[in-house]
Write a structure and sequence with these properties.
With 77 residues, this protein is of the alpha+beta class. It has one domain: Metal Transport, Frataxin, Chain A, CATH 3.30.920. The chain is built from three helices and five strands; from the N terminus they run H-H-E-E-E-E-E-H. The two termini are 12 Å apart.
């Protein structure tokens, strides 16, 4: 979770690592084609992630970070 929260290298975050982190935080995952959709009760936003090769798209990593920090999920402070 630390690489996502640090915000220093969004382009180098592996897609599978972001998906695993969200699932560990209690998000439900649904896949529709290339879109990986994540929802969690109590979280208003729906996260829609797509692969960019083996990495997550940088702007989507920023969206994930914003949601984790906004709702203080996991150990985020």
């Amino acid at each position: 979770m630390q690489p996502v929260l640090s915000g220093t290298s969004d382009a180098a975050i592996r897609f599978d690592d972001v998906c695993t982190m969200l699932e560990e935080l209690g998000f439900e995952k649904r896949v529709r084609g290339s879109h990986h959709l994540f929802r969690k009760p109590g979280v208003e936003e729906r996260l829609n992630l797509q692969r960019d090769g083996s990495h997550a798209k940088p702007y989507q990593v920023k969206q994930v970070r914003a949601v984790v920090l906004r709702y203080r999920l996991g150990d985020a402070k």
